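In the previous chapter we treated chains in isolation. Here, by contrast, the input contains two separate entities that must be folded as one system, with a combined length of 1266 residues.
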Amino acid sequence: MVDSAPEVAVSADRTTLIPKLQTIATRLRIESVRATSEAGSGHPSSCCSAADAVAAVFFGQMRFDPQNPQNQDNDRFVLSKGHAAPLLYAAWAEAGFLSKSDLLSLRNLDCDLEGHPTPRLPFVDVATGSLGQGVCAAIGIALNARRLGSGYRTYVLMGDGESAEGSVWEAAQAGQYFRLDNLCGITDVNGLGQSRKTQLGHDMEAYARRWKAFGWHAIIVDGHDHGALLEALDEAQKTTGCPTMILAHTLKGKGVPLMEGKDGWHGKAIPKGAKLESALESLEKQIVSGTDMPTIPPPPVRVASDVLQGTEIPDPAYELGDQVATRTAYGAALAALGSVNSRVVALDADVGNSTFSEVFESKHPDRFYQTYIAEQVMVGAAVGLASRGAIPFPSTFACFLTRASDFIRMAGIGGIKANIKFAGSHAGVSIGEDGPSQMALEDLAMMRSVPTCVVLYPCDGVSAERLVVAAAAHEGMVYIRTSRPKTEVIYDNAAHFAIGGSKVLRESNEDVATIVAAGVTVYESLRAYEELQKEGVSIRVIDAYSVQPIDEKTIVHAGLQTKNKVITVEDHYPVGGLGDAVSEAVAPHGVTVTRLAVREVPRSGKPEELLSRFRISTAHIISAVRAQIQSDS
Amino acid sequence: MVDSAPEVAVSADRTTLIPKLQTIATRLRIESVRATSEAGSGHPSSCCSAADAVAAVFFGQMRFDPQNPQNQDNDRFVLSKGHAAPLLYAAWAEAGFLSKSDLLSLRNLDCDLEGHPTPRLPFVDVATGSLGQGVCAAIGIALNARRLGSGYRTYVLMGDGESAEGSVWEAAQAGQYFRLDNLCGITDVNGLGQSRKTQLGHDMEAYARRWKAFGWHAIIVDGHDHGALLEALDEAQKTTGCPTMILAHTLKGKGVPLMEGKDGWHGKAIPKGAKLESALESLEKQIVSGTDMPTIPPPPVRVASDVLQGTEIPDPAYELGDQVATRTAYGAALAALGSVNSRVVALDADVGNSTFSEVFESKHPDRFYQTYIAEQVMVGAAVGLASRGAIPFPSTFACFLTRASDFIRMAGIGGIKANIKFAGSHAGVSIGEDGPSQMALEDLAMMRSVPTCVVLYPCDGVSAERLVVAAAAHEGMVYIRTSRPKTEVIYDNAAHFAIGGSKVLRESNEDVATIVAAGVTVYESLRAYEELQKEGVSIRVIDAYSVQPIDEKTIVHAGLQTKNKVITVEDHYPVGGLGDAVSEAVAPHGVTVTRLAVREVPRSGKPEELLSRFRISTAHIISAVRAQIQSDS
């Protein structure tokens, strides 16, 4: 019954609904213009073009609880054209969640109504403002409805200039592949970009051809005609087997004569004074009805879904000395986690047989999302899924996560709400023959650049399994770096691994140097230990499996015992990786770091040859220790 | 006359050409299979599907000097599906440039025939192996022909799985926009990805719809039918006003019964022994003609083009104390450079009125390439342009360069051949009210991660102009970071700025601390100097405008004079930026670094409020100095 509410609302008396929507749209314009003028910056022209569409979606179509924007079953709205943020804020004020006076604090330091929407606001699921990302998140939000068995629908408002981003077409193909008929996009085709007319201008058919070619139902409408907008939204709701894109022909700055349809008004507030007064006066005249609001239908009835919320999996079952790749252990642990926790989902970009997410897929096919070779929508969908309660593990080769670097950056704006567990396999030169295009040597820097991101880098099967579990249990973003080659199991199955921890693998009172390693370089360090032991030289070896946060206490303690010096060794470029992490942690204690890292673009070769060629092998660790002994003496 | 040579060659007696091409294709398969088996890894099945297309393009269509792959006017071939590298190497062996015996050193450490193609090889313009990038580079290579007035044509071979990358559709729209009828793509639709069937399988019409919707001429052919391939290539050559995409229906592993059309053979070499013998035996049987080669037509006649090669522009003309944004100075210098050097080109992603590349556009519209909001193809095209002799300056907001992070990573594989000058504006929290989505706080880490990349970060108009000129003169990749707010001109117009240099702005024998700053934090440091002077405390202030390479000598010298300590301050996250660069440089000298940087996700607000809120302002520098004095005493 509740499910049929929108039908009733929309088909009720349109002759009374339409003027109400027109008036709401005008009020949204007024608030957007006023707020940006007050702030002295912002994008009123981009708000004005989309105001009618937003009014129609929010107050003529969506089913939601305006006082509880996070209700699990609310229809969702994503503002992919994030620069129209004031319009979104005005809509939530219109719905009664915000007070209209708050809108005038737009862009102030201590107001959450920022220049572009962030998840600091309870009605914003994902940060937008980098174009072409909201539509990818919407894919994940729509997939999440399927995961939950919820009837909520997802709406996403895009800009036309934004359609130039390749990520939009990754989202398009994902929408087609997943047959997301619970997803409806609206493109605000106002024809003007930031610096000029868009490439396609108002060629509505050109847009329609593209969306249709990517398998969507496409509808062209006059974006300022509420009757047409409502009909298109109804049609979208009735369309099965594919998503719908409503292409709304609009004018930038609509309703404000000063800027309507005019280039040169992108990202400019109307100056306060005569110009603002005149703009507001024109808008006020466009109010055609009273202030009575249409009824907002409640969200669809919640489907009772008892979800598994387990966080423990059976202990790893390796023998010490077993040879197992951390990526293999990752896949095993992830699949096991999936069996105890139904929030856990996995995404992969056609390399599941390399990252071993395929183990999860075979056990939990309904919670595995294949995006094919499209890392941006893989990550964007993960952001969307996480925003609605899933715990997504997107995985690919670590180097190809850089393809989604901007998505990771934007996800980071969500802070701990971005509860995503990235997994990057094939880290570093140790992958061998495939060559530099497949080697991740900057991924630690990229992931560490997200302030709240935990960065984990296990060296063996046991630590890999344990850290996958720790990642899932942690609230917030985590990155797990895995390696291609098999490595020896060195930890007992019962060993404990904590975010922020490390393991001291070799230690004595006679240690002359401290080696901090992670992943494959742990083994090089252990071999260096053995070699040096033969000469009667003792060194400390620390496995810094938690690169961020780094185990400052343990490393500083070791460094202070070895003449205020530490040697780091990592299968990564020197920038932003283990060496920099350690260096910053120890600096306040007067400890300095010698960094062994890959210092030039590598090449194809055998893994052991490459570790040697790029100076992160046992021999180089030994040399660094000897150099330190010499300088100390 | 030479220009019409291909017509003659192609239309010559096809009844004799076709069997020759069939035989060449078979030999390419044999070499690809043999080399990967010898290497023990690689992608023979992906080579076999595309062998007929490569044979047809190289030996039935392209005009080039096989002994001089870098000839300016050779038709170009880009292997966007880089994992088919052995096929490319075999083609160049077939053309006589490589010896066939070299092919068996594939993937060996000291052989340039790597797992994926890199520009270490003279016939490889751009590194490929991260999918969806070669086609973006091809856009730039085709644009370069227009820049030079050369008649060369550009061919790009793509995989079908690769078409899932959004960057492919950015390239598609750029090809349409620039009307690149000198560009011809071939998609090897073998229907199988790495882990499974591709999303579209062999639905050739679905591919055609997409390419047509993006304005390309699309031709579907049997990719193993040389007659059909030659006709399609002819048709592409005759097509005007848009690029052509030939969609070749193929079988993965074609010609080798063991793997033909079979899933599970991606990225797997055939084991040596019986399986390899059987594969080679089947292939040998497919040789239908002798070993006589078709004639390769010479490249089109060189168009004499006297290009301007100047590297000097007039001195900057500011007054000390002028207020000018570094982004504005960037635009002015770039436009001036364009007037003296015709290799200089600019690209932008619809923010030219913010980055000030619009100044270049207005003066040199024929060398300005607008990619709209599509940063991947902007960077990819720049990589292609650079590979053919242009000096491209792609620019956008620095944060949106992260959208092309994987392209920048791949460009870096080209080393100094990747002669690209990236410009990122709107760095850091100092942009103010637009909020975190628009603030670059990880760009220094991203660019420093390219081992050969120079990273420049000017603070005023004079240094900005000088560093743009230095960037252009430097052979290799450079990143120029500019700021949004106006800053005071502090340098004399005649001042000199060198890559690897710095400026000591304040210095005395009584300095108690060294501050290393760059960009907007230079001004915070100078204000801290003034404040501390009032208390009789002297500090050294260094403008580290060259972040990579960093001026180790000057900073170490200063650090040693201030009790082995340095304070860095940057409008960037602490990861991989100025602090880390300085830290690594000074560590060998026992100097440690206190880093002031942005340590949490920022928010909207006024620039000066944000510098303060995120602890990189004058007050925080003063606090850090005081803390250092206290710990020293």
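Chain B touches chain A through 109 residues (CB under 8 Å). DSSP finds 22 helices and 19 strands in chain B. Compare these points with the single-chain example from earlier in the chapter.
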